[in-house]
Amino acid sequence: METLLIAAASLIIGLGIAGFVVFVTRPRTAPADPAAEQRVVELSARVQQMGELLAKAQSQLQHSVNERLDAVTQRIGQSMQATTQSTVENLQKLNERLAVIDNAQKNITDLASQVTSLQSVLSNKQSRGAFGQGRMEIIVQDGLPKDCYEFQATLSNRSRPDCCVFLPDKRPLVIDAKFPLEAVTAFREAKSDEERKQAAAAVRQHVSKHVADISEKYLIPGETQDLALMFVPSESVYAELHDGFDDVMQKAFRSKVVIVSPSLLMLAIHVIQQIQKDARMREAADKIHAEVGHLIDDIGRLADRVRKLQQHSNQTNEDIRQILISTEKIEKRGERIREVEFDGDEALPANVTPLRRLEAGE
């Protein structure tokens, strides 16, 4: 709008000046007309007045434009300042999030290295056996006292099971921590039905052989318990066996070998702990009975001594009563003697002693 006003004012000024120039520069062939000259003078005054108005309007317009430019500049500066502050805050938040992402990436890297290490451990049969042995030892150590178990104990047939847990009848419960994981892994990774069938047969063969070895080496009649535990250090592997190889689980149970996962081993250890606690209570029952008998004897002797003390107390009370009776008699006799009056010496009997005379007042 302001631009249109400026353009209109410039156009009017240009037209006025052009008309004036044309009027002045036109040839003066005709004689001068006073009315025309008067109109020219009025037109020049009007053009001059219009120029002044337009100059004033232009000045006001420029002032208004300057004010608006200043306001716009100020708003733009404030907006840029706010935008800069917001950008700085967002960059700070972005840096914080990047730091969190860096830490998470570091943790993921550490976890990946640990997973790789665990995979290398599980891929090696000897390392995997040590891994299962370690988990089993931690569960046993957390649940039982030190005198209730022994690792790598030697049996009479020179076999050395991974762990022997001693029950109250002194016969150990054998725990074996080795497990054929390769067959289960192959069964999981089988892609075709034929490969899966072959892997399932391998699982049955390996697990059955291991169960037979445990039953043959660690179940000694009269020396060990009738059952042995085969520890599987993975809940998922145990679930795989339980869901897909129920015949293997039943065959192991018939061979008196129970396959347990970490959670089931914890439960078994807890039950063994309660059994040992009950056995210790039964062993202490005889001692408790003997102590109660001694306590009853002590109470009987205490009762006899209290009765004797009561007899002595009764005798003492009787003696004190007799003494009080004698004291009362003596007091009465003294009062009677004090109440006796004598009129003269003649009145005194011949048998009265001088002491009695003195008491009579002589």
Number of E-type strands: 5
Helix/strand order: HHHEEEHHEHHEHH
Order of strands in the sheet with most strands: 1-2-3-4-5
- The appropriate CATH architecture of the domain at 125-280 is 3-Layer(aba) Sandwich
Q: Would you state the CATH class of the domain at 125-280?
A: Alpha Beta
Number of helices: 9
Shape: flat
Helix/sheet category: mainly alpha
Rg over alpha carbons? 63 Å
Major beta sheet summary: 5 strands, mixed
Helix content: over 70%
Care to describe what's here?
This protein has helices spanning 2-25, 34-123, 125-143, 181-188, 193-218, 235-244, 246-254, 262-339, 354-360; strands at 149-151, 163-166, 172-176, 228-231, 257-260. It contains nine helices and five strands; from the N terminus they run αααβββααβααβαα. By secondary structure, it is mainly alpha-helical. The chain is flat and about 185 Å long. Helix 3 (125-143) packs parallel to helix 8. A five-stranded mixed sheet has the order 1-2-3-4-5. It has a domain at 125-280: 3-Layer(aba) Sandwich (Trna Endonuclease, Chain: A, domain 1). The longest helix is centred in the N-terminal third of the chain and has 90 residues, at 34-123.
Give a brief outline of the structure:
With 362 residues, the chain is mainly alpha-helical. It contains nine helices and five strands. Strands 1-2-3-4-5 form a five-stranded mixed β-sheet.
Q: Keywords for this structure?
A:
mainly alpha, flat, 362 residues, Trna Endonuclease, Chain: A, domain 1, 5 strands
